[in-house]
Amino acid sequence: MRVIYNEQMAGLAQLLGEMAGLAGSAMDRATQSLLQADLTLAEQVITEYDRISEMISDVEERTFALLALQAPVAGDLRQVVAAIQMVNDVNRMGALALHVAKVTRRRHPNHAVPESVNGYFAEMGRIAVSMGESAKEVLETRDPERAAQLNQQDDAMDDLHRHLFTLLMDRDWKYGVAAAVDVTLLGRYYERFADHAVEIGRRVIFLVTGVLPPDEDSEA
Amino acid sequence: MRVIYNEQMAGLAQLLGEMAGLAGSAMDRATQSLLQADLTLAEQVITEYDRISEMISDVEERTFALLALQAPVAGDLRQVVAAIQMVNDVNRMGALALHVAKVTRRRHPNHAVPESVNGYFAEMGRIAVSMGESAKEVLETRDPERAAQLNQQDDAMDDLHRHLFTLLMDRDWKYGVAAAVDVTLLGRYYERFADHAVEIGRRVIFLVTGVLPPDEDSEA
After folding, report:
1. Among candidates A15, A84, A16, which has minimal Cα distance to B85?
2. Which end of chain A is more exposed for a tag (fewer CB within 10 A), N or C?
3. Distance (Å, rounded) from C-alpha A15 to C-alpha A9?
4. pLDDT band at B2, cuts 50/70/90?
5. Which CATH class is domain B1-209?
6. Annotated domain spans of chain A
7. How far apart are CA B154 and CA B137, in angstroms?
8. pTM metric for this prediction
């Protein structure tokens, strides 16, 4: 039983990691579609979200089967419960990339974001992709130090998000209300993407150390 | 074992229901604070979120104990797994009420929302509160028809949300960019609150019927 459990658990962690990586690469392409008003790229992200959705169902069934057939206890059980929680986070990360792609599609052939704000989204996209990669590594290696680094990346994301609001609230904002609405929503999508990656890090830290780090969610 | 399991599971469902009710009443007060620019009420919602957070940890520990000590199988196991998933939804519902209250606080002593838009938020607030109540009933009664009704309430919320965007995108919007940013974020908070309530309904339908209804999330 133990061998089967270990194999299945490793498979589950790998699948979760793969999904985090996919969410990151979806956010990468979504960001490119946004910056270049590239409809084809946006459509690609939208179509490929189905793949993440299918993997979600697969992971949910696997966690259930693990509980039902292996009846894990103690630390093993904690791992499966954490997987059930984290699958929601990777799912949301994928959905948020999808939302960014949908903004691109909605505004095409126009650019959703004024050119002078592009730099912010390029950087938020870069951080998001890197956090997707970090989450993937953390899921695969369960390295708590690596997991804690997600907080620093999240801080950088929050800084950019705050700057973005400063720009929006400035009397010199000259791109009108429609662009402000898009920029507001987009900013929130990137920020939430980062929050979910941080949440994965917290869960892994809890698994390894037994202590759940405080929720430093910038929103709370 | 069976009796203990049933008791513990009923206790868990009741606690989840209570939390959904709390999230609904938090959204009620948050909406009032928003419409009346009432700082005291906003602070109350912000402080009371701590109570929801504590209940979250309590529920998480209980689900874990249930799995560890009772090793439920089949339908019983599905219930516990669903509880683990739904606790995240009620947590987010509470956090979204918190966000609304924080917008009130940030703009105090000004009103965050232009008077002519108040009616929209009053109505979105009303629907949110009612969905919190519905989610509570659904968790307590596990009535799949009641759960399906959450979709209709969500449709009403989505309609309002779309109208709100039409207002924002109108050239006649005369309240400036800052108000548009607040209205955009607030609209999203109410819409997400509704989505989480719907998600609880879907999980309950799955538990009772064995079929997970399609994700009709308006965003996807």
Report:
1. A84
2. N
3. 10
4. confident
5. mainly alpha
6. 1-209
7. 16
8. 0.95
